[in-house]
Amino acid sequence: MSEYHGCELLEDLFYDLDYVWVRPEEDGTLTIGITDPAQTMSGRLQKARIKKVGTHLEAGRHVATLESGKWAGGVPVPFAGEVMDRNEKLLEDPHLINIDPYNDAWIARVKPDDPAHALDNVSTGNVAIAALEEWIKRYGVQCMRCSE
Amino acid sequence: MEPIDQIMQHDHERLDQLLEQGAEAVSQGAWPEAAHLLETFRHGIVDGHMAVEESTLFPAFERQKGDEAQSLTALLRKGHQDLRIFFEEMAEAIQEQDAETFDDLLSTVQTILKQHDAKEENELYPILATALTDHGEAAGRRILDFEAEAES
Ligand SMILES: [Fe+2]
Ligand SMILES: [Fe+2]
Prior knowledge:
Chain A: InterPro entries: 2-oxoA_DH_lipoyl-BS, Biotin_lipoyl, GCV_H, GCV_H/Fam206, Single_hybrid_motif. Chain A: This is Glycine cleavage system protein H. The complex is a heterodimer. Chain A has a single domain (2-139), classed as CATH 2.40.50.100. In chain A, the strands form 3 sheets. Chain A has a 7-stranded antiparallel beta sheet with strand order 7-10-11-5-4-3-12. Chain A has 4 helices and 12 strands. The two termini of chain A are 22 Å apart. Helix content of chain A is 21%, strand content 34%. By secondary structure, chain A is an alpha+beta fold. Chain B has helices at residues 4-27, 31-65, 70-95, 99-124, 128-131, 137-151. In chain B, 86% of the residues lie in helices and 0% in strands. Classes of the chains: A alpha+beta, B mainly alpha. At the A-B interface, strand 8 and strand 9 of A face helix 3 and helix 4 of B. The structure holds fe (ii) ion (2 copies). Residues 8, 12, 49, 53, 117, 120 of chain B line the site of one fe (ii) ion (FE2).
C-alpha cells in the first residue's frame, strides 16, 4: 500500500484513474468500488443507489449513483457486463464508503461480456499510483479517513 | 450584448426550466412530449452550454489563474462527464416509460446541476470578462445563437 496526501492507494488494484477501482475475483467477476481520494472528495455520503442484479451495462455507464450533502455523481464501469451482486449494506449505510472504501464498502460485482479485454481501460501498479497522485494533486485532495 | 457572466447564468436558468418541463411531461405520462423536451434540453446543455465552457471558458480561466484553477475545472469537467451519461440514462428511462427510474435520475441530476452551476456562477463566470481577450463576446454569441435556435 502507498500513501499520498493521506490517501491510501493499493498497488494490486486496477484503476480507471478517476474515481473507480476494479479487483478481479477468482470466479471471473470484477469487483468495483471508489478510491480513498474519491470518497474524500465526495464528502460524507448520504445516499447510494446501485443498479439491480441482472442489469446489463455498457462500458462507461453508471453502476451506482452516490450523493453527499455537497456532491453527487456516478460510478462508471470501465467495461461492459452484467451486475452479478451488489453491496446491499451500502443502500442502508452509504457512509461506509467513507470508512472502508477498498474492502467492506465494495459497490458491485460485474461479470464482463468480454473477459479478455475487460481490463483494457484500467491501469495498475506504479503507473496507476503515479497517475492517481497526479489526480490527488489536481483536485487538491487531502484524505482523512472516517473511523465511524 | 449582455456581459458573458449574465448570458451564462441566464442559460442555466433557461436549461433548468426546460428540464422542469420535461419532468412535468413525464409526471403526466406525456412520453413523446417528454422525449422531445429532454432532447431539446440535452442538445442545449451538451452541444451548446458545456461545449462553450469546455472549449473556451475553462481554458481561459486556467490561463488566467494558473495551477490553482485546476482543482475547480477538473471538478467541473468531471461533472459534465457524469451529466452526459445521466442524460442518456434519462432518455432511456423515457423511452421505456419508466417514471420511477426517471425520477431517481432527475433528483441526482438536479443536485449535480445546483452545485455545479453555483460553483461556476460564484468562482468562474465573474472573471471571464477579463480572462477572455474579446471579453467573452464570441462565447456569448454562440450561447445566444443556441437559445435562438431552441425558440424557433
Ligand atoms: Fe458547466
Ligand atoms: Fe454552466
